[in-house]
Amino acid sequence: MMAFDNELKLLLCGLFGLLAIASLIGFILSRVNVSPSARSTILNLNARIRAWWLMCIISVLAMALGTIGSVVLFALMSFFALRECITLTPTRRGDHEALFWCFFIMLPVQYLLVGMEAYGIFAVFIPVYAFLFIPTRIALSGDTQHFLERTAKIQWSMMIAVYCISHAPALLMLNIPGYENQNIKLLLFLMIVVQLSDVLQYVFGKLFGKRPIVPKLSPNKTVEGFIGGILSASLIGASLWWATPFSFWQAGLISLLITLLGFAGGLCMSAIKRDRGIKDFGAMIEGHGGMMDRIDSLCFAAPVFFHVVRYFYS
Question: What residue ranges carry the coiled-coil annotation (predicted)?
């Protein structure tokens, strides 16, 4: 079970306090007479807030169970994200055996290795062994049509939806001197900073956005939203230094790094959606689309954050 020390309690109170304030603002806005377009934005905002409440409650309950709860939670997130990625890439009969291995063998094994704190194997299992096995299994089916394309799509899906995301609960395996039994706060720090960056980029973009960063790819991502969201989320991350093994400036620089990576992850996932001609990866989360729509930023931020902390602090 997770130990709720004073710092962790304060962190959770701040998180749910922000959600309570957002809910109040959303309720007030819903009672104001506005234009139809503004009304649509407000309805979307309130749907996102309700989804955030649900996701935060589920995440905290899972983390309260300690390493097992966190590993199971992220394994389920990876499963749904992988399913969404594979759904977007039409497969052939020759891929089915390889996909069975991806969903029901490799994914559970990856998270089992995380739970066992087997870093030496966990770090290479998918990018080495799974990446060699997948094309071999597809080749054994004898179907060579679009072989390279089919293999690359499955490997990319495994890399993003499983390998990268598994680095988030892997933070719990790190042994940081003077920070023993507190790693759950590192996981919360990562999720809070990265997800707040997404929210703040959206807010700054809606309030001040004029110049799209990549108009053909994502017209809603603006220069103003990017700068405002990244800087404000980095400042919030720096202000949370007391819950981490970092100093104020270290927390700020690391927050800047993971928010930039989060932006890159969201941009790459948007490119995939535009390529496939869809708006969202799925519709399982009200106001947020699919699972991958919610964790796209985490895909790029989690592995780099894990290795930075492991290299410099563990």
Answer: none
